[in-house]
Design goal:
Helix content is about 5%, strand content about 45%. It is built from one helix and 29 strands. It has one helix spanning about 15-25, and strands spanning about 5, 45-50, 55-60, 70, 80-85, 90-95, 100-105, 110-115, 125, 130-135, 145-150, 155, 165-170, 175-180, 190, 200, 205-210, 215-220, 225-235, 245-250, 255-260, 265-275, 280-285, 290, 300-305, 310-315, 325-330, 335, 345-349. The strands form seven sheets. A five-stranded mixed β-sheet has the order 1-8-7-6-5, covered by helices on one side. A four-stranded antiparallel β-sheet has the order 4-3-2-29, with no helix packed on it. Strands 9-10-11-12 form a four-stranded antiparallel β-sheet, with no helix packed on it.
């Protein structure tokens, strides 16, 4: 598998010329990996990060295969790998002197520098057609949301607030980005053209995730009791500018975090943070049929569904340090995917 820096018509307005040369020189030191496990088995590939705060690399592993593939340099500080639709591309962040948004092309087996100077604390967010990526950057003087076109490298600034914004998700029809803004409560919508800002909620809300059909948004709300998971939907039409209602689908005495939709949009996987451990649960989108999937007496977290919705990958400390496991949607057959002595995290399927 070839691995090199290919030239894109980048939005060079976001990259200072004096900073571009050392970036490219550093990327030229990357190693070449061999073998590729994408699309070769019954299950899709899982991308994840392995390492620590000083050095972390992005790996791709296909369940059932022997060896994962590294697509980042040996001295990387990589984070937040995110697959595009149908695993056509894999975006990830390289966070050294200058944080970079990188994209790995599965077809060409090339890794490209897409944008420099991004916010390394936030994962990239793919458009449903895999032609654009949203990210946060302070290139305009404040931490705002931008969108970059893969074909042209053209970057568009979508928000103009002086407060830091956090991207949640892109709607499945490509019409909206849902996000939050520091200093104010509630979820916000913004059209990718940079117009039509809509205020959805007014609670202490975060981590919004769109359902696969685009008819609901799951999110986390901070209440007096702790953090609970809610589901939001329009009440009279499919227009998010109309009235909406909210349903608490997970609201017991413990904090509930990290909602993730199943492929059919019927169930949510999420994490319950108990006093001495965290476990993974699922629940129907109306709050019924709550099921506990893991009982490992350690921290299990970061659930992510496979594309078919029959498996869930997650991070577990069942083997000491954090490893990536996957299981059936009912919690059965928990299988260890990674067997390293590093900290493995942030799986994406």
């Amino acid at each position: 598998m070839k691995l090199h820096l290919a030239k894109l018509p980048l939005a060079r307005r976001l990259i200072a010329p004096l900073r571009t040369v050392p970036i490219v020189a550093a990327l030229g030191l990357w190693l070449t990996a061999t073998g590729c496990f994408l699309g070769g088995g019954d299950l899709p590939s899982v991308a994840y990060v392995s390492g620590d705060q000083d050095q972390a690399r992005v790996w791709i592993s296909q369940p059932g295969e022997d060896e994962p593939v590294n697509i980042s340099p040996r001295n990387a500080r990589a984070g937040f790998p995110r697959w595009s639709a149908e695993q056509r591309y894999l975006a990830w962040i390289s966070n050294r002197e200058v944080p970079l948004l990188m994209v790995y092309d599965v077809t060409t087996e090339e890794t490209e520098l897409l944008v420099s100077g991004i916010d390394p604390s936030q994962p990239p967010v793919w458009a449903p057609e895999a032609d654009r990526v949203a990210y946060v950057s302070d290139a305009g003087g404040s931490p705002d949301i931008y969108m970059v076109e893969l074909a042209t490298g053209q970057a568009t600034r979508l928000t103009f607030s002086q407060e830091r914004e956090t991207i949640g998700d892109w709607s499945p029809d490509g019409q909206w980005l849902v996000f939050t803004e520091a200093g104010r409560d509630g979820l916000l919508l913004r059209n990718p053209t940079g117009v039509n800002r809509i205020e959805l909620t007014d609670g202490a809300d975060s981590h919004p995730v769109w359902s696969p059909k685009g008819d609901r948004i799951a999110f986390v709300r901070e209440t007096e009791r702790g953090q609970d998971i809610y589901v939001l939907r329009p009440t009279r039409s499919d227009n998010w500018a109309d009235d909406t209602d909210e349903v608490a689908v997970a609201n017991d005495e413990y904090d509930e975090l990290q909602p993730a939709w199943s492929a059919d949009g019927r169930r949510l996987a999420f994490v319950v943070q108990f006093d001495d451990q965290s476990d993974i649960f699922t629940v129907l989108s109306d709050g019924s049929q709550r099921e506990q999937l893991t009982y490992n007496t350690v921290d299990d977290m970061m659930p992510v569904w496979s594309g078919r919705g029959d498996k869930i990958a997650f991070v577990s400390h069942a083997y000491g340090n954090s490893e990536i496991l996957y299981m059936n949607r009912d919690g059965a057959d928990q299988i260890r995917l990674t067997t390293t002595d590093q900290m493995d995290s942030h799986p994406d399927w």
